[in-house]
C-alpha cells in the first residue's frame, strides 16, 4: 500500500528559519530578474531563456559555476550554479551571475567550448559593464567569505574558516607551519552527554544495599564471636541475644528484597 506523502509545514513567521527562507527567495527572484534583463539587453536573447539558476549549499570555495554540455544527439544542457552561502548580497549576485553568463556566451553564442577568460570572455564582460555600470565582471571571484567557525594557529596566526564545526584540534595541525596547534575562535554549544538511568534507579537511595550489608556483617561478627569484644559488652549482648537475632533476621529479609530490585 502506497504511503500518502505528508506536505512539509511552513516555518512559523518571525523565526530564524523563516527569515532565511524569505531571504533566499528574494535572492533567487533578484537573480532570475537580472538574468532575463542581461540576456535581452546584452546577449540579445541568444542564451536559452530556460537556463536553470541552481542555488547550491555545497559551493563553499567559489561563488558561481557555469555548466555546459552538448550530447552526441545535439542536446544542450546549460546551468548556472550559485553559492548560497557566499552570495549574500545583491552586489555579489550581480557580479557573479554576469561572470557566469559571459562564460555561457562564449560557449553557446561563440561556439568556443575551450574559452575560459580570453578575448571572447573579456569582450562580453566589457559589453555587460557598458550597459550596467553597477556591475563589475572580473576574471576571478575574490570575495571575503564570512565563516561561522574559525580556528587560528597559535604559532603562525593563520586563520581557517569553515561553515561547520568540522576541524578536530586534537588531530589536525596547521597546514602552513605544519606543527602549530589550532585554537577555536568561537564558543562551542555542544551539549555534554550524561548517562541515563531508570526512574526506579533514580528514586532508589544510593548505597542502601551497601549500608545494610555492612550493619548485618557487624552484628553477625558480634554474635558469632563474642570473645572478640570486651567482657562487659559481651554480657550485655548475651542478655539481649534474642533481640539481636530478630534484628539480623529483619536485615536478612531486607537485603534479599533489596538485591532483587
From TrEMBL:
GO BP terms in the entry: response to stress
The SprT-like domain extends over 28-185
Coiled-coil portions: none
Q: Which Pfam families match?
A: SprT-like (PF10263)
* GO terms under cellular component: nucleus
InterPro entries in the record, alphabetically? SprT-like_domain (IPR006640)
Instruction: Tell me where on the tree of life, at the top rank, the source sits.
Output: Eukaryota
Write the protein's name.
SprT-like domain-containing protein
Q: Per the UniProt entry, what species is this protein from, by scientific name?
A: Pholiota conissans
Amino acid at each position: 500500500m502506497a504511503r500518502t506523502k505528508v506536505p512539509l509545514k511552513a516555518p512559523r513567521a518571525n523565526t530564524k528559519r523563516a527569515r532565511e527562507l524569505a531571504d533566499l527567495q528574494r535572492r533567487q527572484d533578484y537573480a532570475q530578474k537580472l538574468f532575463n534583463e542581461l540576456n535581452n539587453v546584452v546577449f540579445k536573447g541568444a542564451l536559452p531563456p530556460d537556463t536553470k539558476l541552481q542555488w547550491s549549499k555545497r559551493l563553499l570555495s567559489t561563488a558561481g559555476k557555469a555548466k555546459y554540455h552538448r550530447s552526441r544527439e545535439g542536446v544542450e544542457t546549460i546551468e548556472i550554479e550559485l553559492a548560497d552561502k557566499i552570495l549574500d548580497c545583491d552586489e555579489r549576485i550581480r557580479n557573479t551571475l554576469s561572470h557566469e553568463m559571459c562564460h555561457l556566451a562564449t560557449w553557446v553564442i561563440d561556439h568556443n567550448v575551450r574559452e575560459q577568460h580570453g578575448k571572447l570572455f573579456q569582450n562580453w564582460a566589457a559589453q555587460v559593464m557598458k550597459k550596467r555600470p553597477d556591475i563589475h565582471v572580473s576574471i576571478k571571484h575574490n570575495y571575503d567569505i564570512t565563516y561561522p567557525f574559525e580556528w587560528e594557529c597559535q604559532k603562525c596566526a593563520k586563520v581557517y574558516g569553515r561553515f561547520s564545526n568540522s576541524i578536530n584540534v586534537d588531530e589536525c595541525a596547521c597546514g602552513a607551519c605544519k606543527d602549530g596547534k589550532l585554537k577555536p575562535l568561537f564558543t562551542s554549544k555542544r551539549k555534554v552527554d550524561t548517562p541515563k538511568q531508570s526512574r526506579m534507579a533514580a528514586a532508589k537511595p544510593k548505597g542502601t544495599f551497601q549500608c545494610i550489608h555492612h550493619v548485618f556483617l557487624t552484628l553477625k561478627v558480634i554474635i558469632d564471636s563474642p570473645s572478640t569484644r570486651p567482657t562487659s559488652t559481651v554480657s550485655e549482648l548475651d542478655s539481649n541475644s534474642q533481640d539481636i537475632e530478630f534484628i539480623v533476621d529483619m536485615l536478612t529479609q531486607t537485603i534479599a528484597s533489596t538485591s532483587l530490585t
